[in-house]
Design goal:
There is one protein chain. With 409 residues, the protein is an alpha/beta fold. It has three domains: 6-60 and 158-328, Rossmann fold (3-Layer(aba) Sandwich), CATH 3.40.50.1100; 62-152, Rossmann fold (3-Layer(aba) Sandwich); 332-407, 2-Layer Sandwich (Alpha-Beta Plaits). 44% of the residues lie in helices and 18% in strands. The protein is built from 17 helices and 14 strands. The chain has a six-stranded mixed β-sheet with strand order 1-2-10-7-8-9. A four-stranded parallel β-sheet has the order 5-4-3-6, sandwiched between helices. Strands 12-13-11-14 form a four-stranded antiparallel β-sheet. Helix 2 packs across helix 9 (159-175), helix 6 (88-100) packs parallel to helix 7 and helix 9 crosses helix 10. The longest helix is centred in the middle third of the chain and has 17 residues, at 159-175. It is elongated. The termini are far apart.
């Protein structure tokens, strides 16, 4: 979205971020900074996790939403605010509005996760479900703003929002003064831009690395072109950074101040989420785990100490279940194997005995008896196994072959 007003085009400065920090006193938490021993060993220098997943509403979005709404004129507040979001921004706007006594209307996609819809309503906003994708929801919210005079609160493309998000950067410098690299997820760019404004003004030597999902990576081509360009039909499990086009305001700041923007695949995202859950005991959504995914993808590519910003923890339980299985598969902890055996009583029990002896956990079994490829006395069996990792998978294959089974796949 482009803006023509002088307010929307004004630069964001360190003073703006410091002013936002004062405004957020008693509203947003200074979230914890946790050491990750596992990632520190992997990277070869100290790695800290900035836990914005533990922020009020479950993400950093409250910071920018509150600063933006608090900055409205009395007559603007009286007209109410409107936002469009699939989750995190919706909850941030809802709580910020409630704290400031402003009526909020939030448009959400029809398919938005029920926990996020419920949370937004519980924070006090009026929720309207519209559209199947966020672009349709955004259009509906903008139409509502034009019709009613409500102020549209953009999730990232406004200086006040960026200043609010930049308070994360000030906290990082307070909590880890020796930081060498800050790694942060990037969608529209508001968080990365805000952190960069704050940190580079105080510590220009600190390296800022943005991370996008490969299927929704609009920043690399935009930076190459020198202007925001769109990625059509972005696809990623990380809905918090699933943005098709950078914002005009954050793009200019990211282009100037962020040192690098990397991309990570879905396997890395799911593995990072699983690592946060298992090793750090932190529930993090895929978008929030993007910085950890970048560390997993290239652990030697970051000058330490490293701070990875876990930007949010609002993950739908259904998605969590799928992502955890995907993450375990990416780590070689699931094995699908197809083999043939003689179709006789006790054959399956014998096979299960071999697997039990090899310490594999059987999750699912399916049989195929009618197939032209099979002999009259043959049956094909497909098993889903839980394993201890890639080495164990190899050992299972050897155990099956040594027991005389024909492993097809």
């Amino acid at each position: 979205m482009s803006y023509s007003t002088a307010d929307s085009l004004r630069p964001v400065t360190l003073d703006d971020v410091r002013g936002a920090q004062k405004m957020l006193t008693g509203v947003a938490r200074m979230t914890a900074m946790e050491t990750s021993r596992h990632l520190s060993q992997l990277v070869g220098s100290p790695v800290y996790l900035k836990c914005e997943n533990l922020q009020r509403t479950g993400s950093f979005k409250l910071r920018g939403a509150y600063v933006r709404i608090a900055g409205l004129l009395p007559e603007q507040r009286a007209a109410g605010v409107v936002a469009a979001s699939a989750g995190n921004h919706a909850q941030g706007v809802a709580l910020a509005s409630a704290l400031l006594g402003v009526h909020a209307t939030v448009f959400m996609p029809v398919g938005a996760p029920l926990p996020k819809i419920s949370a937004t309503r519980e924070y006090g906003a009026e929720v309207r479900l519209h559209g199947q994708v966020v672009d349709e929801t955004l259009s509906a919210a903008q139409e509502y703003a034009a019709e009613t005079g409500a102020v549209f609160i953009h999730p990232f493309d406004h200086p006040d929002v960026i200043a609010g998000q930049g308070t994360v950067g000030l906290e990082i410098l307070d909590q880890c003064p020796e930081v060498g690299t800050i790694v942060v997820g990037v969608g529209g760019g508001g968080l990365a831009a805000g952190i960069a404004v704050a940190v580079k003004a105080i510590r220009p030597d600190v390296r800022i690395v943005g991370v996008q999902a490969e299927g929704a990576a609009a920043y690399p081509p935009s930076l190459a072109a020198g202007r925001p360009v769109s990625v059509h039909q972005p696809v990623t499990m990380a809905d918090g950074i699933k943005v098709g086009r950078p914002g005009d305001v954050p793009f200019a700041l990211v282009e100037e101040l962020v040192d690098e923007v990397r991309t990570v695949g879905e396997d890395r995202l799911s593995a990072a989420l699983l690592l946060c859950l298992e090793r750090a005991k932190l529930v993090v959504e895929p978008a929030g785990a993007a910085p950890v995914a970048a560390l997993l993808a290239e652990p030697g590519g970051f000058a330490g100490p490293v701070v990875a910003v876990l930007s949010g923890g609002n993950v739908d339980p259904v998605l969590m279940q799928r992502v955890l299985r995907h993450g375990m598969s990416a780590q070689g902890r699931y094995l699908a194997v197809r083999l043939r055996l003689t179709d006789r009583p006790g054959a399956l029990a014998t096979l299960l005995g071999v697997l039990s002896g090899a310490d594999a956990n059987v999750l699912d079994i399916s049989h195929v008896r009618t197939d032209p490829r099979l002999g009259l006395s043959e049956v094909e069996v497909e098993l889903q196994l839980e394993t201890k990792g890639p080495v164990h998978c190899t050992e299972l294959g050897h155990a099956l072959r040594e027991a005389g089974y024909t492993v097809i796949d």
